[in-house]
Amino acid sequence: MHALKAEQKKELIRSAFLAQKRAYTPYSGFQVGAALLTRDGKIYEGCNIENASFGATNCAERTAFFRAVYEGERDFLAIAIVGKPERAQEFQYCAPCGICRQVMAEFCSPKEFQILLPRSEEDYKEYTLEELLPLSFTEDSMK
Ligand code: THU
After folding, report:
1. Could you report the per-residue pLDDT of 19-78, keeping only the tens digit for each?
2. Where along the chain is the active site annotated (predicted)?
């Protein structure tokens, strides 16, 4: 188990808040940012990118994962996710959707991968992937 240091968590959370500002959300106005940490300390950010054909929308978490995987990354330790309506002042805890949890399960260890849900740099909830996606369907399920 790789325990993240407090400073690493803060940096990841700060990155998620910066990524949230990049959101493209003309339809819902709900702006999400994600920051994904690799085992060797790199951070990949993502935002949600909406589409007039709503089903073509990509969530912030998947933008971060797909950017990282494209760059050759396969080993991830944690993700921070933040979101709020464009006009809201305060952030609420923003849990990842089911599709994004499934994408996490493709690449991340259920017991090790940490999911941080911040409202601010100091106030965040923390879960393992297994807590948010128990009994997941993975490659092993098909053996
Ligand atoms: N959204 C995310 O980016 N991540 C989630 O896990 C939940 C939902 C986005 C998709 C859409 O652009 C907006 O939030 C409203 O659903």
Report:
1. 999 999 999 999 999 999 999 999 999 999 999 999 999 999 999 999 999 999 999 999
2. 61 (proton donor)
For the CA of 27, the closest atom of ligand 1 is 12
Atom of ligand 1 nearest to the CA of 100: 6
Model pTM score: 0.97
- Spatial neighbors of 46 by CB under 8 A, at least 6 apart, are 19, 33, 34, 35, 36, 60, 61, 62, 63, 64, 65, 66, 67
Query: Any idea which residues carry the catalytic annotation?
Result: 61
- 75, 113 in Cβ contact below 8 A? no
> Looking at ligand 1, which residue's alpha carbon is closest to its atom 4?
59
Residues annotated within the binding site for Zn(2+) are: 59, 97, 100
